[in-house]
Amino acid sequence: MTEELTRTPSQRKKKRPEIDHSVPSPCVRVCQFRGNEFCDGCYRNIDEIREWMIMTREQKLLVLDNISGRKQKLEIGNT
Questions:
Q1: CB 54 within 8 A of CB 19
Q2: Backbone angles phi, psi at 7, to 5 degrees
Q3: How far apart are alpha carbons 29 and 73 in whole angstroms?
Q4: pTM of the predicted structure, to 2 decimals
């Protein structure tokens, strides 16, 4: 029998990456996409929402910067 088959499931599991909790989610529990690429509540796209938990701190901060720009563009477009 190979070594892989004789190990228990917990021994076969790969080490999971550390999840970064230092940057809070911008979610405001609105979660609506009314014909828009971005959520009406947090201004993230669907990929950013889905990937948030596994993003690094740096990636999350970049998303927050992008959100700032999106809000400004939408405010300018609505005036």
A1: yes
A2: -80, 150
A3: 22
A4: 0.73
